[in-house]
Amino acid sequence: MAADVLLLNAESGWSRVSVRFLLTTSPSDQENCFNPAPSRSSVASAGEGGEPMDRIDKLRVFAIVARAGSFSAAARQVNLTPSAVSKMINRLEEDVAVALFDRSTKTLSLTVEGSTYLDCVNRVLSDLEETERQLAEQKTVPRGRLRISSSIPIGVRHIQPLIPKFNSQFPDVEIDLNLADNVVDLVEQSIDVAIRVGESQDSSFIARKLCNSRRVVAASPDYIRRFGAPRRPEELVEHECLKFNMKRALNEWPFLIDGAVQSVQLGGKYTANNGETIRHLALSGVGIARLAWFQIGHDVAEGRLVPLLEEFHPNDIQGVYAIFFGHRFVSSRVRSFVDFLIDNLSGERPFLGGRYYRQALGSPGEAAAHAARLALVNGDPR
C-alpha cells in the first residue's frame, strides 16, 4: 500500500513523497495513534541482512522512542534490542537528513525538527490506523456496544420501541440506551449516538436528520370541559399553563399574531423539570401544555389531547437529528443504527396537529369522536 509522507530535508525543507509500507498491525498494536506498539513480526530488524527497512516501521518506532524517552524503554515495547532500535532511528535520520533526537544529554530528547516531524508522524499513523479499522469493519457485521443518548420523550416514544427491530437485524450489537432531558457531554459520557432536536453547533460532530418536529399547544377534553378553550393566545394568561422549571426558553410560547411572531404572558402555577411530567399533567386535566408533536402526537390522534390555537401557530418547524462524533470513518454499528433510524422515522408527520385541530372545530362529516371534541372546544358540556 502507498501513502504520502512529509519528509524534512535540511536544504529544501518539507516535501511530500509517496512511500510504500506494510500493513501488519494487530489489534494490540492499535492502542492509540501515538503508541502503535509494533511487534517483532511487524517491525523489521535493523540487522537482518541489510535489507531496506520499511518506512512505516521506522515511523512507528520513532513515535515510540519519543514517547518512551530512551532506546532501551522503546526496545522493550517493540521486542527488539536497544541497538536495533538505535539503528532504526539512525536510518530514519539519514532518510530525512536531519537529527531528530538530541543525544548530548543523559536523557533522550527531541530536537526542534524532531518535534515538528513527530506531529506529522502522529497524523500519518493515526490515518493509517483509521484506514485499517475501516477496512476491517467492512468485512464484519456490526458488533459491540452502542451507547445512545436521547431525551426522555423521544427515547420512550420513538427510540425504545424500535430497539427490538434493530436487534433482530443486528443481533451482535449491544444497546446501551440513556434517557435524560438534560444535554450530556457526548465525549465525557462516551456516547456513540445522540438523538437531539436541532443541529449540533460543534463542527467535530456529524448531524443526520431523522425527521421534523413542531410544538403543539394542547389540553385534555376534561380541562376544556371545565375551564373552556382559549380563543386567542392573549387569553392564556387566564389559564393554567404547564411550564418548565429548568429552561426558561421553553416557557416562551410564540404565536403568529397580526402578522408578527410574539410571545404572550402565561398563567399557571405548575412547573416541572421534564416533558413527560408535563404531558401527564396535561392528560390529567391539570392544565394546558406546549409540547413536541413527537411526544403527544399519539395522544392527539387518540383523542386524549386536543390541539389549541393552531391558527396562530408560527410554523416553527425543527429537525430531529442523530449526532455522532465526526471521525473520518464511522463504525459500522453507528452507521447501521443511524441508517436504521432514518428508514424508520423519516415518515413522521408533525403537521398533523393542524388537521386534528380542524377536526376538533367541526368539519362536516367528521367521526363522532371529533364531533365530541368540537362540542368541548365550543363550550358544549354534552
TrEMBL record:
<dbReference type="GO" id="GO:0003700">
    <property type="term" value="F:DNA-binding transcription factor activity"/>
</dbReference>
<dbReference type="InterPro" id="IPR036388">
    <property type="entry name" value="WH-like_DNA-bd_sf"/>
</dbReference>
<dbReference type="GO" id="GO:0006351">
    <property type="term" value="P:DNA-templated transcription"/>
</dbReference>
<dbReference type="InterPro" id="IPR000847">
    <property type="entry name" value="LysR_HTH_N"/>
</dbReference>
<comment type="similarity">
    <text>Belongs to the LysR transcriptional regulatory family.</text>
</comment>
<keyword id="KW-0805">Transcription regulation</keyword>
<dbReference type="GO" id="GO:0043565">
    <property type="term" value="F:sequence-specific DNA binding"/>
</dbReference>
<dbReference type="Pfam" id="PF00126">
    <property type="entry name" value="HTH_1"/>
</dbReference>
<dbReference type="InterPro" id="IPR058163">
    <property type="entry name" value="LysR-type_TF_proteobact-type"/>
</dbReference>
<keyword id="KW-0804">Transcription</keyword>
<feature type="region of interest" description="Disordered">
    <location>
        <begin position="32"/>
        <end position="51"/>
    </location>
</feature>
<dbReference type="InterPro" id="IPR036390">
    <property type="entry name" value="WH_DNA-bd_sf"/>
</dbReference>
<protein>
    <submittedName>
        <fullName>LysR family transcriptional regulator</fullName>
    </submittedName>
</protein>
<keyword id="KW-0238">DNA-binding</keyword>
<dbReference type="InterPro" id="IPR005119">
    <property type="entry name" value="LysR_subst-bd"/>
</dbReference>
<feature type="compositionally biased region" description="Polar residues">
    <location>
        <begin position="32"/>
        <end position="44"/>
    </location>
</feature>
<dbReference type="Pfam" id="PF03466">
    <property type="entry name" value="LysR_substrate"/>
</dbReference>
<feature type="domain" description="HTH lysR-type">
    <location>
        <begin position="54"/>
        <end position="111"/>
    </location>
</feature>
